[in-house]
Amino acid sequence: MADPLAGQSGSAHIDHGDRTARTAVLVDRLHAIVTELEEMYPGRKFPLDGHLVGSIGEAATEALFDLTLVAASSTGHDAIAKDGRRVEIKATYGTRGVAIRKTSHAKADALIVLRLSRFPGVEDEVVFNGPLAVASQAAEAVQSNGQASMSLSRLRALNETVLPDHLTVDTEALEPDAE
């Protein structure tokens, strides 16, 4: 495999596998910087959150589920699955939940929620992978900011009810046959 840090930083010159490897290396660097800052300022946290975490989650989900990302900040969905379904992607480093905008319900068919790992070599957790209509059962009331919180524990429980043919993408189908 080519060195994931060699060459141009633009995705046009890097194939999908190399781009995924390079992304992992760069995200590891971000976490190293956060750790160093937290060591320099004991008791103070420097969380990666907001738009950056969303973009990291979208990049991770693109690779994990072989999705096609749409233009950044598209209303209601972040990617398109191979079968044409519109997919909303949510990601967090936290343990409590994610928030989803009401506009997603009108635009997205499916939802993938990842709990991102902060540690190299530790896989991200797929908290939910299935129809947005199923996941919406975990949503609390819409707040004044237009978002409804969704508990990770509730999403995990709902994920157990998603039938295999309703998965956004069956990740086992993406893995090469082990022989």
Structure explained in plain terms:
- The chain contains 6 helices and 7 strands.
- 25% of the residues are buried.
- The chain has a domain at 48-167: Trna Endonuclease, Chain: A, domain 1.
- The chain has 179 residues and is α+β, with helices and mostly antiparallel strands.
- The chain has helices at 16-40, 51-65, 102-107, 132-135, 152-159, 171-174; strands spanning 68-69, 79-80, 86-92, 97-101, 110-115, 125-131, 147-151.
- The two termini are 22 Å apart.
- The protein has a 5-stranded mixed beta sheet. Strands 4-7 form a two-stranded antiparallel ribbon.
- Helix 1 (16-40) runs antiparallel to helix 2 (51-65).
In short:
Helix content is 35%, strand content 19%. With 179 residues, the protein is an alpha+beta fold.
